[in-house]
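INPUT
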Amino acid sequence: MHNFDFVKPASLDEAVKALSAEGAQALSGGQTLMPTMKQRLAAPDVLVSLTGIAALKGVSGRAGASVTVGAATPHAVVAAEARAFYPALAALAGGIGDPAVRNRGTIGGSLANNDPAACYPAAVLASGATITTSRRDIAADDYFQGLFSTALEEGEIITGVTFPIPQKAAYVKFNQPASRFALTGVFVAKYADGVRVAVTGASNNGVFRWSDAEAALSADFSAGALAGLTVDDSEMIADLHGSAAYRANLVKVLTGRAVAAA
Amino acid sequence: MTKVSMTVNGKAVSAEAEGRTLLSAYLREGLGLTGTHVGCDTSQCGACVVHVDGKAVKSCTVFAMDVAGASVTTIEGMANPDGSLGVIQQAFQDHHGLQCGFCTPGMVMSSAALLAANPHPTEAEVRHGLEGNICRCTGYHNIVKAVLAASGQTVAAE
Ligand SMILES: Cc1cc2nc3c(=O)[nH]c(=O)nc-3n(C[C@H](O)[C@H](O)[C@H](O)COP(=O)(O)OP(=O)(O)OC[C@H]3O[C@@H](n4cnc5c(N)ncnc54)[C@H](O)[C@@H]3O)c2cc1C
Ligand code: FES
Ligand code: FES
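OUTPUT
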């Protein structure tokens, strides 16, 4: 790994300033960035650790209304502390990777990275969550822009994510057994004004909403409502773990399971 | 190079580190604590697991500078004060939970974190809790037995 200057600011203002330097990059849990740096796919000149900023950590909410997760909150803390507010979100966080990954990896890092097989993007998109940054609020529908690409601008820091709490929700993930990422994962959330379905791990374009299922489930929230639907496999990921048709089938099967589990 | 200080196994320590110095390298090369093993160096295998402020982490995927000031526990901190094996270590020995021993430091540290959070786990919870630790020798069954035994539960003898 190439060397770099390491800074660990205690406030968001200092972090924003540090990130304005040439070649500076944010470091949160490091569970994605560090392996990337070891492969020299990333070589920042300055790493700005966000783990010392208390304002970016923690889970707070109002029962039945919304829950806000600080960007630098590790998955394990979300699994424990979001449970009272949003059990499906807590369960998703508790199923990411393994315990050691969950003790370091954070929601902010996961969303900034937007890996096509990551879990959090499905929860954020299915919940119509709001991503708050050092500059603005971004709606989930505007945030995800394809593989590893997001609405974030240079030097912009995610500070937190606010999830409206649904009436019912569940995330069902089909594990890729070696990486423990989602081979395909589906998050279903039922709100008073309709159902949202977000799919991760399956598409070449990253996380997406399955609108046909949303319409069917908004009319009838049962796994049976999906029976007549088909999933177009032309944009699905095909690799040694599963063909495009296999993933398209998983989307439908897992959506049904998520509805049943919600 | 900068001096980075933290508490390791209850003792205040410091050693030189660069920005890129991994916690695993800081422990092994900086402090000579070579009990922490580096298997994959890519955050897959869990051989390098240590505790940082009580939480199990993969020390190959944490920068030493990011945990300056923290309290770290390594496998060297798991023995009893008189030098005899701690409860989990002894259970690994009693139940043949190791063969080559390469994965064992990480297995013991992950098991200790698991038992601290859940003192009476089921077999399924043990398997789930050790998901991030890979063993190429034992086939896991005896590791799971060792952890259940360390929690005070009765397991079938060999
Ligand atoms: C073995 C293993 C298994 C895993 N399994 C899963 C899984 O099942 N599901 C899953 O979803 N993920 C999984 N992950 C990924 C894990 O969840 C990562 O923690 C996560 O993707 C990145 O979070 P981080 O905090 O570690 O970010 P980092 O690695 O620190 O950063 C990632 C990127 O985000 C940027 N960044 C970080 N924080 C911010 C911020 N607040 N604002 C703006 N940019 C920021 C960084 O500059 C970097 O580009 C796994 C990882 C490993 C090592
Ligand atoms: S050496 Fe750290 S996970 Fe393998
Ligand atoms: S005992 Fe050899 S790798 Fe586990």
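end of record. The mean pLDDT of chain B is 96.
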